[in-house]
Fold each of these.
Amino acid sequence: MNDGMESATMAPPQIIELSELTSSASPGESIFSGSLDVVQAVKTKLTVVVGDATVSIGDLLNMKANQIFKLDRMIDDHVDILLEGNVVARGQLVAVDDHFGVRITELPKAKNA
């Protein structure tokens, strides 16, 4: 069957022999060696969720400028602070100059090991 693409000559597969990995009694030193300094400057994005609204597809298709959707949270409710989709803290919306900000009000409780 010809789908309009020219057939390319493919190299035959090569057999690769790998040595067996043996477990060691001493696994070695941890990558971070007890210090997180190496990852301190890594950037990540936090997302603040103010609330949700459930609407029909019809409502979305008929949306107009200046239309308001009521969210599921009250004005005084805390907002969720997410990291990679997981809630890592809760806070309160505040104004910082001409920007929104979040005052952290609740941090996760430490788990007992």
Amino acid sequence: MKTLKFMGYSDDTFGEYGTTMDDIDNAGSGEPIQCVIEAGGTALVVTGQYDRNGTGTWDIGISLQDEDLSYPDWDMRISFEGYTTVLEIDVPDDVELTWYNNGERTEGF
């Protein structure tokens, strides 16, 4: 088991900073950055978006990837650090992350 920690940084970078240290920089476009988390035949989508409501903060959303997949039984916690919401998820060791910038697949760096 490991813990993934999703959060935003500055006005253009959203990433996972607990295990992989992967992040996506969208050059301050305000477009959503998504990460699909897959393990054990189930998957979640974590979405980060900066300044969605003109607040100067990072929003984090979470949803099922597919209505036909069962909801994963992973512990999750929400907290706040400065201007970003923080989402921590305890996941199996064999988890895979796939990143998207405004719906287009990209590589985390």
Amino acid sequence: MEPVEIMVTALGSEGQGIGALPSGKTCFVQGVFPGETCLCSIVSETSKYAVCDAFELINASPDRTAPFRPASEVSGGLPFACLSYEAQLKFKQTRVRDCLTRIGGIDPGLLDGVFKPVLGAEKPFRYRNHMQYAVRDGRAGLLCAKSDELGDYDGKLIEYEIFGKLKNAIEDIFERAPVRLFDGLVLRGSLRTNEVLAELTSSSDQPHEVVIRDAKNYIEATGLFEAFVQTCEKDGFALKGLLFRISPNKTSKRTRSGIRTVIKGDDYYDEIFCGRHMRIKAGSFFQVNTEQAEKLAHKASEACSGASVIYDLYCGCGTLGLAVKQKGQKLLGIEVVPEAIQSAKINRSLALSPEEADECGFICRDVLKTDFSSLIRSGKILPPDCIIVDPPRKGLDIGVVKKLMDLAAPEICYISCDPATLARDLKMLLRDYKIKEITPADLFPNASHVECVVLMLRKNT
């Protein structure tokens, strides 16, 4: 097939370039930015659009910060790795606003009064406190898009420096002692407490007793734990623990669950978040960008400052609710994952004084299946003055939206990691609520994802 010349005019939701074929059909090209022209080959085509691979850049955008490389060679889910940070923020601001108007049906004139500039990162590099590396043929790294092959990426863009050194240390061990048992390495840690938690993963479907035995034998024989300890100590870090997890299916891999075993040490590391001591356990959710997550918490605290009772729905290990809670306020956190609720109760005792801790309750329950009305009528919980919702990427179930409207809290703080599902949910919530403020926040520099905080007031309040 003959090469096709494409001029990119916009960016898609996943950071891919958008252009048009000579026929006028829309096409998507990864790794090419608006204003750039490239030579492409058509990879796939439907009646509505085509997907192309660019192999040569004819002219470059002034926003490009590094030479062009074909997308098939680049890994890590970092479509903006070669795009200036100012241009990244502009894209994210535009994407949120577009979703709110196009999907949510919100009047652009209304947005003009409540839409705030995106909260950019002061240091848009080496920001991730959590890295999930794939292990392939003795190498640990990030996969290329829609591929099971490792590609190249610039570690300085995302990972803590200590993570890169630990990755190098395990590759040295794999070179000396090749093994096919492990297919992943998860590193988590804090630059404030200088603690690191490491976890090796396997997708083996063999009996787990055998897999765990083989993993322990390999780690012992190669001195892997000791190598990690020494690498950490050279940089002033402490290795809190080394774990091994068996996740034999896609669901357990996606949710970071499965059969988890502590090889040595602990199954957690400690963090300082919004000035409060938090404990982050293996497998539990915590925002990957600590500094930017604190900006989310600051926005949430604006909604909660005058509340007597705060609900924190999808609370995870309780970090957000505990960060915004003030003395005298009652906090109720709800989360469906038992391990997360256990962590939340630990964090309650670590972050707060005994008197304040008594003002917090955490319930292990599915938000959708929680009968708030019955619990309130029975006196088991108090009605909320402010509700924080921080749902997964799929957003709120329509049943949860109805529960929020029935609870009729004077204020809602909705923290979203997907502008499209946020816009869909706001379309329903705005029947009873009005928007006080919408603030995008960049927790993922060099990636296409964007968080958003929406503060809402009940209309009849």
